[in-house]
Design brief:
Strand content: 5-15%
Order of helices and strands: HHEHEEHEHEHEHEEHHH
Number of helices: 10
Low-confidence stretches: none
Distance between the termini: 29 Å
Number of strands: 8
Radius of gyration: 19 Å
Largest sheet: 6 strands, parallel
Shape: globular
């Protein structure tokens, strides 16, 4: 949480908000360091978070146990009525009641997506998730954007797109939506913050860019080269099976529990 608040402060336009968020980041930093020192083990979901907490609390005992994905549920072969992806459709998902997620979507829709449309005029975008920003809803009909909002089953929506985009600019931890898209064998374009904490190699498992021009270039490249998208998606699916399937994660978590119990 202290990392998220620090990143929020770095991007805040208002001097008052920047100062307040900086103060809150420092308070959270002290709180997290004190809490970590109280427990026999602290579990984090990424090595990035692990390094941050070890710096805060050098004596704390930190274990990295990643979040994962249900590879059976997110098997594309088992999704009913999924059909084929639309060649020039982009998809993004998230809970937009969380301000960092809404921030990333608005930045993508108003800064990045118009540049993609200039290069690929018939491109479309599906926005999936709870409480999408009103600014995005207002502009949707005129810009080829479909706002689906919250859906009971995200899988058909993700499978309808040729490229899954993750424009997150503020965050910490791990983005489960990337793991889900990878398990569904959809090529992913993400910011470095968006894919932070996932042991994926840019250019092998996904494409990564932080500036609008780079992000646009990656999306346009994948829209024009389906074979590249298939190679990335296949490599990412293998990574998910090896590293992020719940069965493997559960074994590691059980081992941590056994060790803590035996020590005490």
């Amino acid at each position: 949480e202290s990392v998220i608040m620090r990143r929020f402060a770095e991007r805040a336009a208002s001097r008052f908000v920047k100062g307040y968020a900086t103060l809150q980041a420092r308070r959270l930093h002290r709180y997290e360091a004190g809490m970590c020192a109280r427990f026999a083990r602290c579990l984090v979901v990424t090595e990035v978070d692990g390094r941050a907490l070890r710096q805060m609390a050098p004596d704390a005992r930190i274990e990295v146990i990643p979040s994962g994905v249900d590879t059976e549920w997110f098997d594309p072969a088992l999704v009913p009525s999924s059909g084929s992806p639309e060649p020039h459709r982009l998809v993004t998902t998230g809970d937009y009641s969380w301000p960092p997620t809404a921030d990333g979507l608005e930045d993508f829709v108003f800064r990045v997506y118009p540049l993609i449309r200039r290069a690929v005029p018939d491109v479309t975008l599906s926005v999936v998730g709870h409480r999408p920003p009103a600014s995005v809803v207002r502009t949707a009909a005129q810009t080829g954007i479909t706002v689906l909002g919250r859906v009971e089953d995200v899988r058909p929506a993700v499978l309808s797109g040729a490229v899954f985009v993750v424009p997150t600019r503020i965050g910490s931890g791990i983005r489960l939506k990337i793991l889900e898209a990878m398990a569904l064998r959809r090529p992913v374009v993400s910011t470095s913050v968006g894919c932070e904490g996932i042991e994926a190699t840019p250019g092998e498992h996904l494409l990564v860019a932080d500036d609008p021009e780079g992000f646009v270039g990656h999306v346009v490249q994948l829209l024009g080269d389906p074979a590249l998208g298939q190679r990335l998606a296949a490599a990412a699916a293998r990574l998910i099976e090896r590293r992020y399937a719940w069965t493997a994660i559960a074994d590691r978590l059980n081992e941590v529990y056994r060790t803590v119990v035996s020590e005490r």
